[in-house]
């Protein structure tokens, strides 16, 4: 709905915007390409769109600006912005769909663990009447060590854990047991893997949307795309930093759950009972993590969209890609963030955040 409103606003106001004039010297400031010397035979009252090439107003109309002034943007320029907005909307949906598909693929791998919970071997090895030392359980042993007692090493360990073992079998079975103990009667048969998959699908409704705040960030980064500033390069690092921070936080939550169990009980019956809580999340808001993931995905999609839009409008070897190696590096970084978010961070969030919050109807 917001996309439609923006598109209609551009269509109805394009000629009025094109009649807004600015001084000639202002027109050559904060351009995404290096300004070229003016040629004497090109007139002087037409501003180059995005400092790439001179374009007249659509329909063959001349400029309405007086000598020494140029339009702030031409109708052709507004049309190109319209195309960019359309590109961004389409690429964001495709990007979100790929993210969800890879996330579902990761969660599908947990189906084998879910099937094991119906076997006699699982019931015997995890007999609820069987007493075990807490520090000998798989979940506590995997997440507690000497480094977990030192704050600096604690977060360094959590940072690297997300790359090598984001969700282990003991993590899944322990969180599954905690969920069933809180929400269902003892001995209930429940497909926890299917529940997590449906939780991920529900979160997709948030991830795929584009809020006014995201559109505002799109405008800000577009305006800051000034030649020499490399603003889009620095902006491409934001999604990576966010996803790495979120992944580290989620691993820290698992570790804190294990530490609480070891501090609370010396001996446990069956599988250790985790107690999920909103207090583990930033500001006590699990949804904040999802919104950060949403923002990172949108910014990542914007980087990819901008690359293909420039390629479509101005060719690959235009002044926008004066450093083609850096541009290709940004695209590669975007692909890496996509994989990291969809295959590691988002499934881990679905497993941790949904456990203490709500139960979906079958």
Automatic annotation (TrEMBL):
GO terms for cellular component: membrane. This is Mlo-like protein 8. Its main location: membrane. The keyword Membrane applies. It is found in: Membrane. Residues 1-18 form the signal peptide. The lineage of its organism: Eukaryota, Viridiplantae, Streptophyta, Embryophyta, Tracheophyta. InterPro entries: Mlo. Pfam families: Mlo. The keyword Transmembrane applies. Keywords: Membrane, Pathogenesis-related protein, Plant defense, Signal, Transmembrane, Transmembrane helix. It comes from the Eukaryota.
């Amino acid at each position: 709905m917001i996309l439609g409103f923006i598109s209609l606003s551009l269509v109805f106001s394009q000629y009025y915007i094109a009649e807004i004039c600015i001084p000639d010297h202002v027109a050559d400031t904060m351009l995404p390409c290096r300004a070229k010397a003016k040629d004497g035979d090109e007139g002087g009252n037409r501003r180059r769109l995005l400092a790439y090439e001179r374009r007249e107003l659509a329909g063959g109309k001349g400029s309405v600006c007086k000598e020494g002034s140029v339009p702030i943007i031409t109708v052709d320029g507004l049309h190109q912005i319209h195309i960019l907005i359309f590109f961004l909307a389409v690429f964001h949906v495709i990007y979100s769909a790929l993210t969800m598909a890879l996330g579902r693929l990761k969660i599908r791998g947990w189906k084998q663990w879910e099937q094991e919970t119906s076997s006699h071997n699982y019931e015997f090895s995890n007999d609820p009447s069987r007493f075990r030392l807490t520090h000998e359980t798989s979940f506590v042993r995997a997440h507690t060590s000497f480094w977990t007692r030192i704050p600096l090493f604690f977060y360094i360990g959590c940072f690297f854990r997300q790359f090598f073992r984001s969700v282990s079998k003991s993590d899944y079975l322990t969180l599954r047991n905690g969920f069933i103990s809180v929400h269902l009667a003892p001995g209930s048969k429940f497909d926890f893997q299917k529940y997590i998959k449906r939780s991920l699908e529900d979160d997709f409704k948030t991830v795929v949307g584009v809020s006014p705040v995201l559109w505002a960030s799109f405008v800000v980064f577009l305006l800051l795309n000034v030649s020499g500033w490399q603003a889009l390069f620095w902006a491409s690092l934001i999604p990576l930093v966010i996803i790495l921070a979120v992944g580290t936080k989620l691993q820290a939550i698992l570790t804190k759950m294990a530490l609480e169990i070891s501090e609370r009980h010396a001996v446990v019956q069956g599988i250790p009972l985790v107690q999920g809580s909103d207090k583990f999340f930033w500001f006590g808001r699990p949804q904040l993590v999802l919104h950060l993931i949403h923002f990172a995905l949108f910014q990542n999609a914007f980087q990819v969209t901008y690359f293909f839009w420039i390629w479509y409008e101005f060719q690959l070897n235009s002044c926008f890609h004066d450093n083609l190696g850096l541009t290709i590096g940004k695209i590669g970084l975007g692909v890496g963030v996509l994989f990291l978010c969809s295959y590691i961070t988002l499934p881990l969030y679905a497993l941790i955040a949904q456990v203490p919050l709500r139960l979906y109807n079958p």
